[in-house]
Write a structure and sequence with these properties.
By secondary structure, this protein is mainly β. The protein has a single domain, classed as Jelly Rolls. 10% of the residues lie in helices and 41% in strands. The protein contains five helices and 19 strands. The protein has a 17-stranded mixed β-sheet that branches. A two-stranded parallel sheet has the order 1-19. The longest helix is centred in the N-terminal third of the chain and has 15 residues. The protein is globular, with a radius of gyration of 19 Å. The structure holds 2-acetamido-2-deoxy-beta-D-glucopyranose. Keywords: Signal. It comes from Xylaria multiplex. One of its GO terms (molecular function) is hydrolase activity, hydrolyzing O-glycosyl compounds. It holds the Pfam family Glyco_hydro_16.
Length: 309
């Protein structure tokens, strides 16, 4: 029932909001009250949200802002980021931090709806951008509004482009005053373009990280997927399992975060002034259990995400 309400509210929001044109919901999909990632999966989830960035009107790539205060204070770059489809789930961050050599400023100006090049793959996509200014790194971070996700399967069709010295990421996170709980997909633009790093944080623990050479480069569109179950973090690219870590699997309710950043440190690298990097996302499927939206009723009509995206 909870999942039906979520889908219904997405459908309502989409029909009311001219800028966001979602796919029409198949009637079978609207009846789903339970989900699993693939036909073979044995992890079930009761809520699902699908964010489709492929056909949004009036895409616009904003010019970079050069100035820490103005960058942090920048407004939303597109009406889409004021729609309930977005604001019910995501928040645009503008916090700043000293960094590890280069000051870092998150700016809403770095989260935008861009027109796709080359056609074919969808007219538009969500972009998160980082740009190196003379005295700081302008970065992008989108966090979930709530930190109540407890087990999920999340996937996105994404690619990373741009200069060395950046990290693009999709991850879960909480600090809650205790040791960090976090599971990461991280791409470093400094590495070869088929290398992805997967971690159950803290990454300083031996065996908490797996570094994978993918079959295809992340400069191309790839379906990145993360399955979080009570005892394991499992990561997939284009449907193929590429990493599985049980050690330090998060157990607390977490936030879901996308970011594109650099802090001038050894790990992110140092970006040259005037350069930039981006993560581009055509769609994101968030299928999850939530501590604040518990299941109502039995898991009777199970839908497989593979069949829906
Ligand atoms: C998600 O919640 C449902 C309903 O409570 C439960 O049956 C299912 O096992 C949960 N999934 C995970 C991965 O814990």
């Amino acid at each position: 029932m909870a999942s039906f309400r979520v889908l219904f509210s997405i459908a309502t929001a989409l029909s009311l909001v001219a800028v966001a044109q979602g796919r029409p919901l198949a009637s079978a999909e609207a009846n789903c009250n339970c989900y699993k990632a693939t036909a073979e999966s044995d992890a079930y989830f009761v809520n699902r949200k699908f964010f489709d960035f492929r056909d949004i009107a009036d895409p616009k790539t904003p010019a970079s802002i050069n100035g820490r205060a103005a960058d942090a204070a920048a407004g939303r770059t597109h009406a889409y980021f004021s729609t309930p489809e977005w604001t019910d789930t995501w928040t645009l961050q503008n916090w700043q931090t000293q960094g590890q050599g280069v000051y870092r400023v998150n700016s809403p100006n770095n989260v935008f709806i861009a027109a796709s090049d080359c056609g074919g793959a969808g007219a538009t996509h969500l972009t998160l951008r980082t740009t190196r200014q003379a005295d700081y790194q302008s970065t992008a971070e989108v966090e979930s509004l709530t930190a109540d996700y407890q087990f999920l399967t999340v996937r996105m069709l994404a690619r990373t482009r741009g200069s060395p010295g950046a990290v693009t990421a999709l991850f879960t996170y909480t600090e809650h005053g205790g040791p960090v709980q976090e599971a990461d997909i991280e791409i470093r633009t400094t590495t070869k373009s088929n290398v992805v790093q997967y971690t159950n944080q803290p990454g300083s623990t031996p065996d908490a990280t797996t570094i994978v050479d993918l079959a295809t480069p992340w400069t191309q569109w790839q379906e990145h997927r993360y399955d979080w179950t009570p005892t394991s973090s499992d990561w997939y690219v284009d449907g193929k399992k590429v990493a599985s870590i049980r050690l330090q699997t998060p157990t607390s309710p977490l936030s879901v975060i996308m970011n594109v950043w650099s802090d001038g440190g050894v790990w992110s690298g140092v970006m040259d002034v005037g350069c930039s990097a981006e993560m581009q996302v055509q769609w994101l499927d968030l299928t999850y259990n939530s501590t604040s939206q518990p299941a109502v009723g039995a898991c009777t009509n199970v839908c497989v995400i593979d069949d829906l995206v």
